[in-house]
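Following up on my earlier thread - several people asked me to post the actual chain instead of describing it. Fair enough. Here it is, all 212 residues.
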Amino acid sequence: MAAPDTALGALHNGMRMNQDDFARALEVVTGLPISLLGFAAVPGGHVADDQQGGHDLTSPVSNLATPTPAAKPSTAHRSYEGVWLSRYQYYSSGREESFAGQHFVVLLQHGDRLTARSLPGSASSSLSLDLTVDGAVVTGTWVEQTDPAGYYRGARYHGAIQLLAEPTGRRMAGKRVGFGKDMDVNTGPWELVFRDASTSKATLDRYNTSAT
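Reply from S.P.:
Thanks for posting it. Predicted structure:
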């Protein structure tokens, strides 16, 4: 029986593709790293420490389309409904200083989908999150409508967010990505901290106050 790399070479020669291109295509089709398929890893990747506990990876494979994962059977999900404190940090290039944005948000859950909306009295801007839960990984998008009378003059910002839920289910922490005032793409830390499981009017009234 031919070794994996020999078999790969014979197959890509028949398809008139060089070995690197064929390896990357095979990763896309199977959804698995080439090293797990029995072949040598595709060269050219670069990993950089982002100094915030994460890493940025660039690879030729990222230039290819990502396959759509197969649907997973429905499972029971932990309940995250209630009032949470949303807190993120960002750098203002115009003011050359870092700031924190804080809101009390009401989080509602439908299966693996989470929606969060800020209480109007908790901040001068309004915030919304639309998230999907996959185990301990929470991924989605954020939108913030800034204060018309504030520094950003009512500008609307939006981007992506990914958080990891702690085993207690009472805190999620991760990062956001989004464009800035100068149309550059920025990243920064974001966390959600549980405050109350109730979404009654009395509870919402109690948290409808400044979160700072």
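Residues 19-30 form the longest helix (12 residues). That should answer part of your original question.
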